Amino acid sequence: VRSRPTDTTDMVCGYCSTGCSLKVHLKDGEAVNLSPNPDYPVNLGMACPKGWEALTVLDSPDRATTPLRKNASGRLEPVDWDVAASTFVDRFRAIQQQHGPDSVAFLSTGQMPTEEMAFLGAFAKFGMGLLHGDGNTRQCMATSVVAYKQAFGFDAPPYTYQDFEDSDTIVLIGSNLCLAHPIMWERVMRNPNDPRIVVVDPRMTETAMNATQHLAIAPKSDQSLLYGVARILIEKGWIDRDFIDAHTNDFDAFAEFVQPFTLDRVTQETGLAADAIEEFARTIHKGRRVSFWWTMGVNQSYQGVRTAQAIINLALMTGNIGCPGTGANSITGQCNAMGSRLFSNTTNLLGGHDFANAEHRQKIAGILGIPETVIPTENSWAYNEIMEGILRGRICGLWVICTNPAHSWINQNLARDILDRLDFLVVQDMYHSTETAREADLVLPAAAWGEKEGTFINSERRIGVLKKVHRAPGQALSDFNIFRLLASYWGCENMFRNWTSPEAVFQILKQCSAGQPCDITGIHDYRMIDERGGIQWPYSSQVPDDRQQRVLFEDGKFYHPDQRAKFLFEEPRPLSEAPGREFDFILLTGRGSASQWHTQTRTKNSAVLRKLYPEHPFVEVNPADARRLGIRPNDWITVRSQRGQMRAMAFLTPAVSPGQVFIPMHYEETNRLTDAVFDPYSKQPSYKACAVQLVTA
Ligand code: SF4
Question: From the UniProt record, which GO molecular function terms apply (predicted)?
Fold first, then answer.
């Protein structure tokens, strides 16, 4: 306790997509401590260690407190904002003049409030004339976005967290909910129906340890398993034919497609016993309210979209959608991944619109009062295409906001080589010490969560409010004010004359959402969001308050023009990099602790969180493999792939199957090993499985 508080305000947490509400206790308007909000419908008085420590990481010596510019000897040195903004404009303009407007790109984040994302996307694309900009949501949610759009007609996760408590059968695929979304897992634990919990995951994760049935499939064989289960459901007649006929397309083609996925084939491809697969199908059939959930184990795959759609297919064919306790439910990663999906102006035009659609461009131009001609007529390159663009010399300037690709991007050695090739790299971040900021030509110091205002949209489509409860250090500015400043130096401030505050931008974004599935025109202002304990989209002004939807698709109407959902399917492909003689293990990566967040940029600044997690890298090895290779507990070994290597301490555990090892994603070295392959539809990187060898010497 820093000092005795005199006031309290509520705001949403800024780490994961759960979107818990925290009560921040104030003295003279400044936060002194916090506690979980017992009255918020998301977290019901709970928070994970990251939430409890959210204020601590703001007071770090690593905070960027002044703009920094690289000098002639390659060192970053402090400059004032005038020099920083002038340098930003001069260098990017010079690159655009020499190589064309598209030769500068930006990479943003699912960590910023919606209003800031929208400002960034609008300034970059309409003001600076950039075509290419993407977010780190490409690394977590792109697969679900595409899967939903193709299947439902819009990127619309249909559920609410109440479904965790209403289901009698919960199927978790590629999701270690217990660590990655601990409060959602607590909601599962509160389910009064004694639900059956099925976990599909190659590892015996903390979630799998608590499951009724754990299906420890061979890595990346989930698509075959799901098709095999669909085949059993069809064969036994365990499907909802009325729902299928009334609300879906292409089921008969799907039923024919899954015929070759016999038990023999699926047992061979997944490594599971036939009776375990049949039991899984029977569990789905017996459930009255079955909910299917997935996260990064599915999304971060070279065949993520079709795997996600194989899950959606199971929900559709059994009629488990549109009712409490059901759904094909993607759990997002970051606190504002959903805001990024709808309002970042990267792959969608503001409000889930389409850059290629002339009517959409006209609508948005009218709302913003800008010429239609400044709106690009095509989509941005995806993150990986921007990186390839740098490699090919097509992108020469990059603006990185609130993300850390030098740590987090797949095949790190190549990623760092790519970033080194840039003529000019700007990093805008709350810390000057990130792996990417250390390589920058210009660092812009940004205010953090708790030092600015705006809204986040969580996994269940709930909009929550973020508030300023802490003073940003030194000259750091909110990202919102940095964008205003840069727009003014760029000479396009008139375009943003109405973008005076985050709440003013929220009002503009409301207009952009009008008539879309994500319509939020019925929300008056931030105060209303606060008073209601967050508000889920859609919340249209055209719908009476008591008829606003909680679970989507209650009426069986989807967002395709014919209002029917689609069955989508494709032949599964083998592992993108199978183990062989030399690289004979499969590396699995993922979250290692509820106390750590992604690249540890923030969480490593909390002494409490550091104590909850080993600071040195570790690798989980099956005891049988360890015996064969002479590895003892806590031995330091080298893990090597075709792309790089790292040292890690061996942790012997049967949680990983023989022939597999697991390393958490939080360590800087982990992505030296991963292989840069991508889902063809979503362009999401396939972080989860590649071939490695263990070297004991
Ligand atoms: Fe914050 Fe997520 Fe933890 Fe909730 S579960 S406190 S939103 S990090």
Answer: 4 iron, 4 sulfur cluster binding; metal ion binding; molybdopterin cofactor binding; oxidoreductase activity
